[in-house]
């Protein structure tokens, strides 16, 4: 699939605002046909541009301790270590980074004791981990599920849009490379 265009970004934004909206509701809001919505959403899902998901509130589920953990690792084992960490059920996100840490990941646990046990029993036993830094996060203010496609910026590729999908005055014409 080619890069998402203005219509795709509008559809994604509508789905982010109301994941349970029908294709007919999204079509009305985006001012395109229901067939276009269905075809484009299916294409976005098939291309792994978007993924339908349920995002639980970890705190309400009893996971009272969350932390961000930075690792410095032997670089020749970077991908292997990141993949090992990715597969731990306690891990909610993993990123290979540059700068102070080689890998940064987030975890969730019912208690602080569970976090300590994880660090001692799981992370410290991974070959190639040289250093860890754990930052307990007593409050998370924004997660990926709270982020919205910035239609006003549209990644600098398309005209400025209002949240209802209408073009703002003074916008430039978008170049749409995908067929309706």
Q: How large is the share of residues in beta strands? A: 15-25%
C-alpha geometry: elongated
Q: Summarize the biggest pleated sheet.
A: 4 strands, antiparallel
Q: Count the DSSP helices.
A: 5
Which CATH class of the largest domain is shown? Mainly Alpha
What share of the residues lie within helices? 25-40%
User: What is the distance, rounded to the nearest whole angstrom, between the alpha carbons of the first and last residues?
Assistant: 14 Å
Topology pattern, helix = H, strand = E: HHHEHEEHE
- The CATH superfamily of the largest domain turns out to be Winged helix-like DNA-binding domain superfamily/Winged helix DNA-binding domain
Level-2 CATH architecture of the largest domain: Orthogonal Bundle
Radius of gyration: 21 Å
**Contiguous runs where pLDDT drops below 50 for at least 5 residues:** 157-180
Q: What count of structural domains?
A: 2
Count the beta strands. 4
Class per helix and strand makeup: alpha+beta
Strand order of the largest sheet: 2-3-1-4
CATH level 3 topology of the largest domain:
Arc Repressor Mutant, subunit A
Give the overall pLDDT as a whole number. Answer: 86
Polypeptide structure, described:
- This protein has a four-stranded antiparallel sheet with strand order 2-3-1-4.
- With 180 residues, it is α+β, with helices and mostly antiparallel strands.
- The protein has helices at 6-17, 23-30, 34-46, 78-86, 112-123, and strands at 65-73, 91-96, 103-109, 129-136.
- Helix content is 30%, strand content 17%.
- Strand 2 and strand 3 form a beta hairpin.
- Helix 1 (6-17) packs across helix 2 (23-30) and helix 2 (23-30) packs across helix 3.
- The chain is elongated, with a radius of gyration of 21 Å.
- Mean pLDDT is 86; it is low at 157-180.
- It contains five helices and four strands, in the order H-H-H-E-H-E-E-H-E.
- The protein folds into two domains: 1-55 and 143-180, Arc Repressor Mutant, subunit A (Orthogonal Bundle); 65-136, Lrp/AsnC effector binding domain/regulation of amino acid metabolism (RAM) domain (Alpha-Beta Plaits), CATH 3.30.70.920.
